Amino acid sequence: MPAEINERDLTFTFRDALSVERFDDDTTHGMGHRMKRVDFVVAFPNETWLIEVKDPENRIIPAHLKQAQLDAFRKKMHSETLYGRELAPKLRDTLVYLSLAHRSPINKITFICVISIATLDAAMLLTALNKLERSCYLPGPFKRPWASNFSVLVLNMDAWNEKLHPHSVRRL
Hints:
By secondary structure, this protein is α/β, with parallel strands linked by helices. The protein contains 5 helices and 8 strands; from the N terminus they run βββαββααβαβαβ. α4 links the parallel β6 and β7.
């Protein structure tokens, strides 16, 4: 049975997930407001996805503010503020919380950032991926690899639906 979860006006559908948890919710886990968190934690038999959604094209944004919000978001993407000050801390704090709560994933971990800007092409997504990988790099103990396999993805909605099929995302 597929599991669905919404982030504003986006609906994510996960096939064969063991669990789908809204993680960016104070009532779920009681993390302090100082800790950053990803939006969702999705567990599969052999992999755990930590998902962060950035949706500057959200239909809930009033029309007269939409272009300014989109421009501000693009500026964050180019200045690397998005990666180093927003996304990487969300990943680190989420991993720390899960570890201290004895909930660390024991399988492959994939940090997925969904940027729902329709005009992001493959080259822009690759640039964003490279910036995010640099921001999220955490050397293992004694600079050796970590025991867990870890990867990072940056996708827009079209890339999600293409690369992560049969899982899907759609705008309501």
